[in-house]
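Why predict the complex rather than its parts? Because the way molecules touch one another can change local conformation, and only a joint prediction can capture that. The input here totals 200 residues.
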Amino acid sequence: MSNSLDPEQTIQEAYMERQTPNILITGTPGTGKTTLSQLASESTGLPHINVGELVKEKSLHQGYDQEFQSWILDDDKLVDELEETLSSGGNIVDFHSCEVFPERWFDLVLVLRTDNTILYDRLKDRGYSQKKITENIDSEIFQVILEEAKESYAAEIVVDLQSNNIEDMQSNVARIEEWVETWKARTNEKDSQENLNTKH
Ligand code: DAT
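Output of the joint prediction:
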């Protein structure tokens, strides 16, 4: 795993059959996935897929779990729903879990990290119950999503990004934009090289 969004370290040629990359933005609730995804979508032009919203909208679940106060995800329905869109490339996917998706879908997996006290305030502002706040803070302390990402994707494409303040947010947007531009340039270069080779 890398904690730098350096294209030299993270761009994987094996994943470059798509014309534009798919990026997964994951992390504990409240770390800033939706905010970052929206801003990155505006700056790169790639559409933002808010999976949590999609699950509710298209009923990609098996009902509501009262105890955990969350929807019980139907993994197969979710993967079927997204398969075509993700196979074509060029999406920013925002979800608090990452192991449900096929590994082949993503060119970059960003795991947002937030300090506990900051995360606590954000979840409290959101009106979460004490139980739900504690669960999420524990999950952040034990790096549950980061470990999940490292187990589910190639180490080179998993990058953790701090998301404590506005400066972090701005820097993360700029780095994603730069990374996407580099990725596209590499793909174009590779395609022209392949075209040249086939003409010879
Ligand atoms: P998530 O989608 O991970 O649940 P969010 O994007 O809804 O998180 O953000 C939760 C709240 O925290 C929201 O009010 C925006 C704020 N926030 C997120 N990231 C931030 C950052 N890096 N700096 C300041 N505020 C941030």
